[in-house]
UniProtKB/TrEMBL annotation:
This is DNA-binding transcriptional regulator, LysR family. It comes from Gemmiger formicilis. PANTHER family: HCA OPERON TRANSCRIPTIONAL ACTIVATOR HCAR (PTHR30346:SF0), TRANSCRIPTIONAL DUAL REGULATOR HCAR-RELATED (PTHR30346). The keyword DNA-binding applies. GO terms for molecular function: DNA binding; DNA-binding transcription factor activity.
Length: 286
């Protein structure tokens, strides 16, 4: 089986674009298109919906994707194991983080690890904890610094993080030591990352609370700006605190709401990823 064609297909799906896949893999767009067309001819059904806005997998393709990712993961692990037998040092490691504050730790670990394994390529991706957990299960990442999610293969806890309510400094409850969770249901709310599963939506589900969302944004910095302008309140992880907004005060909820943050990884890691795991186990951030 020609696995390169499957790699091309996954790149096109992950980027949502044949052109972006071509640029990353060093092919022409027509070459990428021919490769996918060959797969479709061999299988007897379409794999991609093609439109001016990009490409999306067909329903039939979606059924194949878990097996395709398993196939390519197994191939990568086989190639790395063979290289290890030959005495070579190679492989690619993908590390995801949902929290910007961990970039410094990740890059320090990358630099130190590369002095021992110079042939290993390391990539960083970001996203919400739920997005990265899904990528981990699909073998699109090897490690993720995220808050805990169910069904994670391997979990190394790092710390407890508190969910904080963001209030305009002139809010009537801003002087209190904590913010009652009951008030989350009635206050005008600014929704960060609407439509996505986040630590905040999980806490609201746990509390059986539906906030009165009046505004939304995909940028936490914009959330702080809107709170500072007095448009409403919001919630953020304490670890993701944004400085520079004197018009915003942060208060814990009453009762306190915590999320466990840790390092997640898969089982049966490829040699490069296993070497990285062994390296960082004794160097986890606080």
């Amino acid at each position: 089986m020609d696995t390169e064609r499957w790699q091309i297909l996954l790149k096109a799906i992950d980027h949502g674009s044949l052109r972006a896949a071509a640029e990353e893999m060093g092919f022409t767009v027509s070459g990428i298109s021919r490769s996918v067309a060959t797969l479709e001819k061999e299988l007897g059904f379409a794999l991609l919906h093609r439109a001016k806005s990009g490409v999306q997998p067909t329903a039939e393709c979606r059924q194949l994707l878990p097996s395709v990712r398993e196939l390519l993961f197994a191939q990568e692990r086989l190639e790395q194991t063979a290289a290890k037998v030959r005495g070579a040092d190679c492989g690619t490691i993908v590390i995801g983080t949902a929290y910007n504050c961990y970039y410094e730790w990740v890059t320090r670990m990358m630099a130190a690890f590369r002095t021992r394994h110079p042939g290993v390529v390391i990539k960083i991706v970001n996203g919400t904890s739920s997005e990265l957990a899904e990528m981990l299960l699909d073998h699109r990442t090897d490690f993720c610094l995220i808050s805990h999610r169910d069904s994670l293969p391997v979990w190394l806890p790092i710390r407890q993080d508190e969910l904080m309510v963001l209030l305009p400094k002139n809010h009537p409850l801003a002087d209190r030591e904590s913010f009652p969770v009951e008030s989350l249901k009635t206050e005008p709310f600014i929704d960060s990352y609407p439509g996505m599963e986040t630590d905040i939506t999980l806490i609201f589900d746990k509390l059986k609370a539906r906030p009165d969302a009046r505004y939304s944004t995909m940028d936490i910095t914009a959330t702080y700006a809107m709170v500072s302008a007095g448009l409403g309140i919001s919630v953020n992880n304490a670890i993701n605190h944004q400085g520079g907004y004197p018009g915003v005060v942060e208060r814990p909820m009453n009762p306190h709401q915590m999320m466990e943050i840790g390092l997640a990884c898969g089982e049966n890691l490829a040699p490069a990823a296993q070497a990285f795991l062994d390296f960082v186990k004794e160097r986890l951030p606080e």
